[in-house]
Amino acid sequence: MASRRARIAFSDSAAKQLENITSEADIHALDRALVVISVNPDLGEPIPGNSAGPQLLQYADEIERVRLLYWVTALRTVVVVAYIEV
Questions:
Q1: What is the DSSP string of 27-66?
Q2: Which of 32, 38, 49, 59 could bond to 5 as cystine, CB 3.0-4.6 Å?
Q3: Who's near 81: CB < 8 A, 6+ residues apart?
Q4: Taking the model in full, what pTM does it have?
């Protein structure tokens, strides 16, 4: 049985960043990175910090030049993107 993809959601600040991305190449690169983390949310590297909140992860694709900061919900069904860098 194939595993399901996690749903992608955006924090308010990431949604605002998303609105400012106008380059078609940047949108394509971001889309590819989002697919990667939706298929395998554990792929990102943990960012050290406060253990009181959700574990913040970083995914960076050096070829596409995309960096995402995100966390995964407790049921592992939603990936919440907190920061986008393209």
A1: HHHHHHHHHHHHH-GGGSEEPP--TTSPPPEEEEETTTTE
A2: 38
A3: 8, 9, 10, 11, 14, 34, 68, 69, 70
A4: 0.86
CA distance 56 to 43: 12
pLDDT in tens, 35-82: 999 999 999 999 987 777 778 999 999 888 899 999 998 888 899 999
Residues 6+ apart with CB under 8 A from 58: 44, 45, 46, 47, 67, 68, 69
- Give the torsion sign (CA, 26, 18, 46, 35): negative
Please give the DSSP secondary-structure letter assigned to residue 75. T
